[in-house]
Amino acid sequence: MGKVYVFDHPLIQHKLTYIRDVKTGTKEFRELVDEVSTLMAFEITRDLPLQDIEVQTPVQQASAKVLAGKKLGVVPILRAGLGMVDGILKLIPAAKVGHIGLYRDPKTLTPVEYYVKLPSDIEERDFILVDPMLATGGSAVEAVNSLKKRGANSIRFMCLIAAPEGVEVLQEAHPDVDIYIAALDEKLNEKGYIVPGLGDAGDRLYGTK
Ligand code: URA
Questions:
Q1: Given this model, what pLDDT does residue 109 score?
Q2: Which fold does the domain 4-206 belong to in CATH?
């Protein structure tokens, strides 16, 4: 079963409160999502492997750590996932960025792929799949399916807010995918919104309705 990690760092929690606030306008919302994404990227990269190199300091030669060069991929689920990408790339600028676009079939209500573009060396990369909201879990499950069927074998899912229903659906479908969140909310409402949530993440990021 995939593990769920809640990033409860005070800065993340503080900023998330203002992201939730209906009074927060588009510009500030986008800036806060960007900042929280950077902070979450800091937490999610804690286990990156290091290697020793020799460095000449002004004082003497020393052995010191650098990242071992693990290949990372960041994949936003369109469109709201885009709001998290730049914040993550601030800390891991060498990561490649893929994109997955899904729409909801009006008849079956299931998510259907309409756009997928991923780095070519998929098998060698560790992917961070991002979407601000894990609601029903349908999109997250389909996006992981998309990645896996093209060869990805290391995937983590990162979002701002999750509903228990979405966590359960993703864990059931993909027990190998760990889930990283800033908050686990109460439930979904009858319209599929997370409660208390933050409303429609895409609309709030891009000023649409
Ligand atoms: N997607 C959103 O943007 N918000 C929700 O509450 C649920 C799904």
A1: 81
A2: Rossmann fold (3.40.50)
